[in-house]
Design brief:
130 residues, mainly alpha, 3 helices, rod-shaped
Length: 130
């Protein structure tokens, strides 16, 4: 058995794994762009499976289609990082907003000079998208 015989099969396996990874990254990027954080967690298993498939594929010589797939995945991964950093920033802002809203307001004074009780009611509205 010659290793060269299996090189096209290896490249095909690698290309398929790269396509699966690209598809998962595209879905995750769309969810991140929409700040649909609930849709992101289920995609982790899909990305891990694609990466495992890529790691399990036998090595092959790079071919133009394989290089193109790898470049596409690299570009999607860079975009993913940017979108993920933005989502983390937005989420941190929402957490800070909720934390500020949960703090009790300082008490004031009523007209006759008595201290008023602080308003302990919950915030009436929060950003629904966050």
């Amino acid at each position: 058995m010659n290793g060269e015989i299996f090189a096209p099969a290896a490249a095909t396996m690698q290309a398929a794994a790269l396509r699966r990874l690209a598809a998962a990254l595209e879905r995750e990027n769309a969810a991140l762009a929409a700040l649909d954080l609930a849709a992101i967690a289920p995609l982790l298993a899909e990305k891990e499976a694609a990466l495992a498939g890529l790691a399990a594929a036998p090595p092959s010589l790079p071919s133009p289609p394989l290089i193109a797939h790898a470049r596409e995945v690299a570009a999607l991964a860079r975009r993913n990082r940017t979108l993920l950093e933005y989502a983390i920033t937005v989420q941190a802002g929402v957490i800070a907003l909720v934390a500020r809203a949960a703090r009790p307001a300082p008490g004031g004074y009523h007209a006759p000079g008595r201290r008023a009780a602080p308003d302990r009611s919950l915030p009436r509205a929060l950003c629904a998208r966050a």
